[in-house]
């Protein structure tokens, strides 16, 4: 596993932990679809929430959420829509979580963006 993959998996773990503390229930993670991977799938009330997690260890390349381009947004939507159709889900949305920090550093900064599409 590359350094970037390790940092990404760490960020996904931080995001899942954060969301669970906020009342979300983890349904699945790293789900593969024909359109790519969904980082996290959670449930809150009756809504399934697909979460794209972006992690950066420094601000050298901008904020993590800056990497969610229109092309990436379409990719995320296609993944979520495919999963929702397979599972016959009616109520769902797509969120993003920005994680800024390092696995060995102090507490990371977490920003939750709800209903990004």
Question: Could you describe the 3D structure shown?
Answer:
The chain has 117 residues and is of the alpha+beta class. It has one domain (3-113): Trna Endonuclease, Chain: A, domain 1 (3-Layer(aba) Sandwich), CATH 3.40.1350. Helices cover 31% and strands 36% of the residues. The protein has two helices and five strands. The protein has helices at 3-21, 70-86; strands spanning 25-33, 36-44, 47-56, 92-100, 109-113. It has a five-stranded mixed beta sheet with strand order 1-2-3-4-5, sandwiched between helices. The N and C termini lie far apart (31 Å). The model has no long low-confidence stretch (mean pLDDT 93).
Class of secondary structure makeup: alpha+beta
The overall strand count is 5
- Number of helices, counting only DSSP H or I runs of 4 residues or more: 2
CATH architecture assignment name: 3-Layer(aba) Sandwich
CATH topology: Trna Endonuclease, Chain: A, domain 1
Main beta sheet strand tally, sense and closure: 5 strands, mixed
Which spans have pLDDT < 50 for at least 5 consecutive residues?
none
Name the assembly state.
single chain
């Amino acid at each position: 596993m590359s350094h970037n993959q390790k940092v990404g998996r760490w960020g996904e773990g931080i995001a899942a932990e954060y969301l669970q503390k906020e009342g979300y229930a983890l349904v699945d993670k790293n789900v593969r679809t024909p359109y790519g991977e969904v980082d996290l799938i959670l449930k809150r009330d009756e809504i399934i929430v697909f979460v794209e997690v972006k992690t950066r260890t420094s601000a050298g390349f901008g904020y993590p959420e800056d990497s969610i381009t229109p092309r990436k947004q379409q990719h995320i939507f296609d993944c979520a829509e495919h999963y929702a159709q397979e599972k016959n889900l009616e109520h769902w949305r797509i969120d993003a979580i920005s994680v800024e920090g390092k696995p060995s550093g102090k507490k990371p900064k977490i920003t939750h963006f709800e209903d990004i599409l």
